[in-house]
Amino acid sequence: MDFHETLSRRGYSRKEMMKRVARFKKLKGSDGGLPDSKMPGCERILYNVIGFQPPATERGGKQSPVGVKAARMAAIKISEGFNLGYCRARPGKGPMLHNHDTNETFIAMTGTWRALWENERGKLEHVDLKPLDLISFPPGAIRRFMNVTRGPKNKYSTLMFVIGGNAPSSEFTNKSMREIEAAGAMPRQRATRKAAR
Q: N or C: which end of the chain has fewer CB within 10 A?
């Protein structure tokens, strides 16, 4: 055989590998830490499973895609080029329009999820995802998602998201931020102070 391994290799102990196991029932979710967290219709719980360490800059509307709180609650605290988390929400709930500096891929785990994006004319388009369907948004695509599952309004569905990078950033659109501010969910004074830091 004329094959030779070229990648570095290392054996890992069971103890080391168990630090890289995340049990869903033990994950800690967060329902805050993003500008739209207190907006009606945007209620959701975010679970930081892998990565999502806080970005270098968390001000002026830029923050971790999982928010200030969940960015500090990773089950597996690594920076290895990607981040993985879950969103749980009831029907009709999901974030406002926002953007990321890296790829973001949504995978419906349970329920039906609507992935929306702005097209080249600034109009919203969408596709509905059933369990195990996915959509992959490139950097710069204005997007949002919403649980559109039919049935009981109090039943949560789960969406997995994978985002590229070691410390990715996200920001809400100007329109979203104006709506958040107008609703009093993020008073102008507080937003201005953060931006001035």
A: N
User: Which tens digit of pLDDT belongs to each residue from 94-106?
Assistant: 999 999 999 999 9
CA distances 70 to 3, 6, 49, 83, 132, Å, are: 44, 37, 9, 12, 24
- The C-alpha atoms of residue 79 and residue 167 are separated, in whole angstroms, by 7
DSSP string covering 148-164, please?
---S-TT--EEEEEEEE
Q: Which CATH topology does 24-196 take?
A: Jelly Rolls (2.60.120)
Question: pTM for the full model?
Answer: 0.86
Half-sphere exposure of 68 (CA within 13 A, CB side): 12
Angle between helices 174-182 and 188-196 (to 10 degrees): 130
Given this model, what pLDDT does residue 188 score?
46
Low-confidence ranges of the chain (pLDDT < 50): 187-197
* Closest to 45 measured CA to CA, from 54, 57, 37, 53: 37
